[in-house]
Design goal:
two-stranded antiparallel sheet, binds iron/sulfur cluster, five-stranded mixed beta sheet, alpha+beta, Alpha-Beta Plaits
């Protein structure tokens, strides 16, 4: 049974165990994105780096077998800086908004998209809990900044956020709106402006929003039916996996700055042809988990790598559509659950902060 050291801890591990196994055994938290229990290590993301003590070598903890007598550094500023850089490299190429433009433009960063979804789902009490978390604005003649920031406004007319806020705040709240408001700007990768074609592709992910015209309230406040129809116009610009996205989780934890290695916008695309899942290549970090899972399951034509080095991408092979690649529902679900970002998401996946 080999014994290794990580920082100041001596750890006995079974033969064949990795440095990551050893760290987990004693509660040392090492970040991972491309590693999944039960799958062979891929060592593509490089966020689990540890330093071999007494050398200049950094190695991925998930793919390094523990050798008796060796010592590793994990919780040092130097190792943390290397992990942060690995995260920033991934964030620099990540095309997607963690938080919607409307939320980022609100003075208290109110979770407007979540409030709107509750209205659309006929849950006015839950919408009220969010709307009441922030001081209400005065009704004005010009739309407030958070409404002017609405992405839908670039397509036709912005969602009537201010009127929806007043509608929600007028209802009885079910409970306190968890994490509804912040006193500091929430962490977010920012996708930036989309051209007309990209905006249409983006709107396809929210098919119900369609081309409905903006609903004006007949009275002073929306009725529930009016509010629900207007809420249905929202494009759901915030991330579909706000809680489970491991890239965001570790980026926040390590203080990674998404702007450090920001690359030129490379075009928003959405693969919407699969009956059960959607694939957003811009959010893919090419970890390879879906490629490995699909290959091992023998399902469809699977997913594949294209290109090399920093230009590598994961995509359906040849000219195949996503409906041909992961056509087995169970395999598609496993891939979506394994995906460390919101690149692969099941259509029935509903995830909110509360
Ligand atoms: S479409 Fe919805 S989520 Fe997007 S900015 Fe407008 S209100 Fe916010
Ligand atoms: S789509 Fe596949 S390769 Fe890309 S991040 Fe998700 S699991 Fe990894």
């Amino acid at each position: 049974m080999p014994t290794i050291r990580i920082d100041d801890k001596a750890i006995d591990v079974p033969d064949g165990a990795t440095v990551l196994d050893a760290a987990r055994q004693v509660g040392i938290e090492i970040p991972t994105l491309c590693f999944l229990d039960g799958q062979s290590p891929l060592t593509t993301c490089m966020v689990c780096l540890v330093k071999l003590a007494g050398t200049d070598r950094f190695v991925p903890a998930c793919g390094t077998v523990a050798v008796d007598g060796q010592a590793y550094e994990s919780e040092t500023p130097e190792v943390h800086a290397m992990r942060r850089e690995a995260l920033e490299l991934l964030l620099g190429d990540h095309l997607g908004d963690c938080e919607a433009p409307c939320r980022l433009a609100h003075p208290h960063y109110l979770d407007i998209p979540r409030m709107i979804r509750h209205i659309a789902a006929d849950e006015p009490g839950r919408a009220a809990a969010i709307a009441r978390a922030a001081p209400p604005g005065e009704p004005g003649e010009t739309a407030p900044p958070f409404e002017r920031a609405c992405r839908r406004g670039r397509r036709d007319e912005p969602v009537a956020i201010d009127a929806l806020l007043r509608f929600a705040a007028s209802r009885d709240a079910d409970a306190a709106g968890a994490d509804a408001m912040r006193d500091h700007r929430p962490f977010s990768v920012i996708m930036g402006g989309l051209d007309e074609q990209e905006l249409e592709a983006f709107a396809e992910a929210a098919p119900d929003a369609g081309k409905q015209p903006r609903v004006e309230p007949a009275g002073k406040l929306y009725t529930l039916d009016e509010a629900r129809r207007e809420a249905g116009r929202c494009l759901h610009c915030d991330c579909r996996t706000p809680v489970s996205c491991r890239l965001r989780h570790w980026a926040e934890r390590y203080g990674a700055d998404p702007r450090t290695f920001r690359k030129k916008h490379h075009g928003f695309r959405l693969h919407d042809e699969h009956a059960s899942l959607v694939f957003e290549p811009g959010k893919c970090i090419a970890c390879g988990l879906c490629v490995q899972i699909a290959r091992e399951s023998g399902n469809g034509v699977g997913m594949t790598f294209e290109g090399r080095g920093f230009a590598v991408r994961v995509k359906p092979p040849f000219a195949a559509g996503m409906d041909e690649t992961l056509d087995d529902e169970a395999v598609a679900r496993r891939c979506a659950e394994a995906c460390p970002t919101a690149a692969l998401v099941m259509r029935d996946h509903g995830e909110e902060r509360e």
